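Budget justification, computational time. The allocation requested in the original proposal was used primarily to generate structure tokens for proteins on the priority list. As evidence of use, we reproduce two of the resulting records. The first is shown immediately below.
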Amino acid sequence: MNDCIVIIPTYNEIENIESIVRAVLSQHKPFHVLIIDDNSPDHTAHRVRLLQEEFEGRLFLEVRKKKSGLGTAYVHGFKWALRHNYDFIFEMDADFSHNPDDLEKLYNACHFGNADLAIGSRYVTGVNVVNWPLSRVLMSYFASVYVRIITGMQIHDATAGFVCYKREVLEKIGLDRIKFVGYAFQIEMKYRTFSKDFKISEVPIIFTDRTKGVSKMSNSIIVEAVFGVISLRIKKLFNTL
């Protein structure tokens, strides 16, 4: 039984999906891949089904009825991974903003290091972002500064979406209570991990913005993150997190 599963949510990623699947499954470490597709109109799921014939037993697909948010896609994937007894569960984007070659770094931090959650961090050694406009770099960087101030978590990249969890973390943080779906989802997952006294480690990576497809970022996701952090802190203060 393979112990590692990489969860990749998709919505209209037909331009990237085959390349990212092949890149992950060609790593020296034998990862498995779970695609959570939100019924993409561009037939991303159909392309995955064709690839499953080639990667039988290593590539899995869950198709949801409609686009329901990044957070709910990952929670769906986490529960699937726990049911199928994986020990190390990864989040990763489909658009190559996260380099598949860095997966093993996250795995090593959890398996050989003492991390319960390993974060592929854009900011732990400075600002390691390629092809983003300065406005977006500043927004992302200072969002993490804001999160550190409000929550007390000493994490440089609180909104990072390239991570590895040990299964014990996902079993104990209360997946059914996860509220947020965008940037705030990533913050909430880390804060719940932090609040349960799990060890969090940041692994430096270089983040490269997508060159194909369309970004899913929106103003509503940013607003959710700003106010979501405050609500998480209040819940923690009143022991209702």
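The second record produced under the same allocation is shown here.
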Amino acid sequence: MERLYSLQGMRGVAVVGVVLFHMASVEAKYSGGDLLLPSLVDFFQLGVDLFFVISGFVMVIVTRGRHQDWVQGQRFVYHRLARIYPNYWLYYAITLAIYLAAPGMVNSAHGGSNLGMSFLLLPSDKVLLVMVAWSLVFELWFYLVFAGLLFLRERWLTVCLAAWALLLVGFNLVAQWQDYSQAVKIMLHPYALEFIAGCAIARYFYSPRSASLATRHVWAMLLVSVLVGMPLIAALGLYRTEGLSRMLLVAAVFSGLTLSLVLLERRGQLSVPRWLAHIGDMSYTVYLSHLLVLGVMGQLWRLVGARPDSLWDNAAFVVLMLAATLCYGWVAYRLIEKPLLDRATAWGNRRFHKAVARKVYDAA
């Protein structure tokens, strides 16, 4: 599979944005009243939307040339589940231990959680035990639909994605996804448009047409995405909503950003800093763990004592929170997530290699 460092770099930016967004509320809780982080960091919650676009792009990468193959379809589902669940269950277990020891410290403001549904990452009318895992419920739905599309010819993928997008747009123009059950809300939510957009630009990226796009036009697309698209999203306050207008504009802007960066990288016009790509590598661990790390840092800061008469203590607090989150993420990625993923991948490769061998033998 082609290694695109720009995708990992964007994952790094996305997860740092989500961390900064949540750091603002931790600072407000423990800083003693004065605030350093501006309300502008609310925009950074769109890091999750960027994750969805990147996810769609990656799904096309890992399934190229593997359509209409039962074994490859099983491999896809296995690797997606192995990517999501083992690492997630670790933070589920940690959060569950805290919940059992001190129930008031976990989601008490949200009326508690359904532990079974949280464990399986299934739609629930209660907040998930690991609150940030709500996005994983959407990811699993996207993977399920995409797995179904693998049974069709690969050349039909674009048409099927377009039909899925039109169905979502049509529904959300005439009805409200909020009026339905939790499972149906996931299916009808326009978040899927961002995933579909990521798939669409990946299809274009790997098509012959992408080579004919002039480099100056690629740079223009990047500049428009950053200097026009993002300020427009901020000016309209779309990051505060979950409606169709947000998903359409954010999908367009982040798709333009993603496509321009990967094209520039392929053409040797862009080099992503390795440190940023490394943050992207550990982004899943950082995403799952950062609320726990920020909570611990807040408790420690409470012991040190905040100084409402100065913002210097806030500056130190903010730097320590970000450093602690990234340092823990690096250690946990190296010692936990990567070994788990390597073992799961190795087992899957052995399992499906045997399945392919049996298929060849039977065909002979």
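A brief technical remark on that second record: Residues 5-359 form one domain.
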